[in-house]
Amino acid sequence: MKTREKNKKEKEHDQKRLEKATKELADVANGFATEFAECDGDVFYSSFKNLQNAAFEYDREKDMLKMTKVGESWDWQKGICGEHRYRDIQWKEIK
After folding, report:
1. What are the tens digits of pLDDT across the range 42-79?
2. Which of 34, 38, 70, 90 lies at a C-alpha separation of 20 to 30 Å from 2?
């Protein structure tokens, strides 16, 4: 498989996605903590799943940022992102 180094725009894209995931995790964790306190430790399963999903997304984006190469397909062990992750970055921005 042919690979290349990530370019500056791809690295910026990864950083923006990590920042977005970090904010979402903080928001969900804050809501979870409030619910936990208000319900004396009893929380809804959906609140737990929201927190779990936000934490998973945050960890995934951290891993993506660490990957240094781009290739035709993913290879997590070698630190290679699939090129399709970056195909449309010039047309859309992470909000």
Report:
1. 888 999 999 999 999 999 999 999 999 999 888 888 89
2. 90
- List, edge to edge, every strand of the sheet that includes 69-71: 3-5, 69-71, 80-82
Region at 16 (left for phi over 0; alpha for psi -120 to 50; beta for the rest)? alpha
Residues 6+ apart with CB under 8 A from 12: none
- Three-class secondary structure of residue 58 per DSSP: helix
d(CA 32, CA 70) in angstroms, rounded, equals: 36
3-state secondary structure of 87: coil
Find all residues with CB under 8 Å of 58, minimum gap 6, and list them.
Answer: 18, 21, 22, 24, 25
Nearest Cα to 92, choosing from 1, 5, 17? 17
